[in-house]
Write a structure and sequence with these properties.
Chain A: This is Thiamine pyrimidine synthase. The complex is a heterodimer of chains A (about 350) and B (about 525). Chain A is of the alpha/beta class and about 350 residues long. Chain A contains 15 helices and 10 strands. Chain A starts with a helix and ends with a helix. In chain B, helix 2 packs across helix 11 and helix 3 crosses helix 10. The chains are: A alpha/beta (about 350), B mainly alpha (about 525).
Chain lengths: ~350, ~525
Amino acid sequence: MAERRTLSRRTLIGAGVLGAAGIGAATFAGVSAFRNPPRNGTDVALQLSWLHSAQFAGSYIALDRGYWSDAGLNVSLLQGGPNAPVEPPVVSGQALVGVSAADFTAAAVAEGAPFKIIGVAMQNNPFVIASLPDNPVNEPGDLEGKRIGMALANTPTLETLCTLNGVDITAIEIVPTQYAAQPLTSGEVDCLLCWETDLPVAMEIQGVESITMLMADYGYTLHSQTYIATDDSLANRRDDVVALMAGEVRGWEEYRLDTDAAAALSVEMYPDAGLDLETQQLQAARQVPLMFSELTDELGFGFWNEETVAQNIETLALLGQSVTPDLWDSSILEQVHGA
Amino acid sequence: MIVAVTASIRPLAAPARRDAAVGVAGVVVALVAWEVLARSLEGAFVLAAPTAVVVAIVDNGPLLGRALAATGSTALAGFVIGNLAAVALAGLAAAWPRSQRTVTGLALIVVCLPLVATAPLLRVLLGPGDGPQIALAALAVYYTTLIPLLVGLRAVPDTWLDLVRVAGRGAVTALVVVRARASVPYLAAGLQIAAPAAFLGAMVGEFTGAERGLGVLTIRASRDLDVDLTWALATIAAAVSMLAYAIVGMIGRAATGGQPPTILAAPRIAAGPGRVRRTLASTASAVVATIVLWWGGIILLGITPFVARTPLDVVGIFAGTRDGGLTRDALFAALCDTAVYVVPGYIAGLAAGVLLAVLIVLAPGASGAIMPVAVALRSVPIVTSAPLIVLLLGRGSLGAITLIAVMVFFPTLVACLHGLRQAPGQVLDVMAVYATAPWRVVVRARIPAMLPAFFAAARMSVPAAVLAVTVVEWLATGTGIGALMARSASLSNYDALAGAVVLVTAVAALGYAAVGAIETRMLARYAPEQAS
């Protein structure tokens, strides 16, 4: 009897301690989720495509300088991640606007998502082939006989590059790898399919010199970091969408003037993201030529013209996706730049 | 009865001081080997030396502290919620025995859901914030608590229940007064396994767009080629997992008086002519319950049709009426690629678990050296260990198989170790009197005693192996059904995603049932008391 009572009491204490700790944690989690004090204005969310970094520094500038709050918007920037697709929160209305890419947007539209591309942050596609100087890939022809590390999901991208440049893809050995520079540095592969602004930057910061061949220079014309919104939002929440995009445009124009400051702001605004200032500065500088061009100088940030849309449609066709020019809706940007 | 066999366990333990010395020596050897390996791989950016890890932890102290607090709090919340759910389900099953098979069947189906696909869906459902991390941590723990708890609730002498009945009370009183107390040791065992699992679940949940946490930093560090920080994060995650395992174990021992129960014991196996019919009926009820929850959830939660697929849609996918079987064929092709890894990895993991357990029993001192390394191996997040294992063993099948084996072997080791120690004391005494060779004792007495625990672990490892292979394919090899799910999510191909979820879940549940069928036959021979 005595033993049973002891057992019961100890159990209860143990359970109580665990339970209390757990409830505390749950409360803490709940509180931290709603810690931002409510402000006046319309709550809207912008769904980013990746973790916080200088990749989205134009948005941070817009937030930090109050471009949105002045326009009556209370914008939250939702971080992405390796297992966080952008399209569902935009379809479901959790996010008013999302940062996608032309190929992902086209795929979603083919699946019935009512999306329009309302702005293009990256005029030039950021995909590169990164290699080391003693075994370089300077042009697509150099790929033959090489081992390339990439996600198998990107095979259509490589196929398209090969088709555009008359390269025999069967002469390339595709090694499925995780998205990291390490297979290249450890000699498992000769080159990587990656972005101009991430893995090559990481290698440079770690003291590994690399060579990048921008695929956009070899016919791979595909808008990236595209802003998407649903037809419903464009019809019924038009003012919010215009205000959001106006803030984006102003933010990115500021960004271009001082990328170092933009990188510093990224590091400062997201102390928990583990951002390294030097890395962010290099990344911020490297994405400028991808985002700004003669076209944007003429028409304004985020714009496109009939010619670039036609090129995008051609590239998408090679990727196996069929879209029409209607996918791009310039009316929001016209309103932004006209205002 | 299960409890009756737990008697003589202690004689195995070697003097504690020698154990501790071997343990310290084992850790030192492991650290030195780690340092040497890391230095020999310098320039490959794969492995950081322990000294570099310490420097990275000190340099990034506040950042890592905040991340640890974020991940730790969500893991704890998930741990509590998941275990409360397990306790509630077990209570329901005990108070209303007819529901038990439906409850366990449904619980099995939920634990077999591939998180590569469910994690982004959880983000859609729960929105920004900590929801998905907490949910994944809870999903990672509830099953390993529920199953031992159900065993514990039954591990009650019938006479006690008779007493309740004589007093004119019913099932609820029996549950509260008798069964709940009898189940405490089993609950403790389940909670101990759950503690590290909650932490890893929370980390993977952060991959769906969490603002902060160790998982977020792990992604960042691996992209930035910051090997020192990557391994500092892995070290912290492993240390916290080990600590959680130890602390929950300590609380459990304090609560139960130090007698470890038979964890993961076999379910009571239905016997007699009605068995097949009852099995079919219970399977059907679990499947029906799943479909009701699935379909009802879509309607009640108002999930956008862009993402949501109903059971009818999935039938269409597999019948080929939606797209002429295109998705179905792609799914089966990917599943075949996956099988090449998962089957050998699963078997290798089970074998490694058994062999290490036998080794520890034959040379008890080795426990101090093996166990810390085993817990550490299991605790290092797969996203960090994958590049190293792939580099050491190659990117071919060997690396992937090893990664799966690493995920499977630990629960098997723990269960088998416990099972080997379940050998009846009298049998061991008789063998000792006749000076039987140690290996013969293992073969004749301990391994038969181990079989129930081994099979339970083998059963529970099926979902674990499927989870491991999909994560490995997603993060490391980029092939098979795991990569297909990740690709489908990014290309908005929710037909393929829904089909993959159903297929993977069904395969895992069938694998579980197949191991259960082998178990029934084996136990009928070697442990008939389990098959009563």
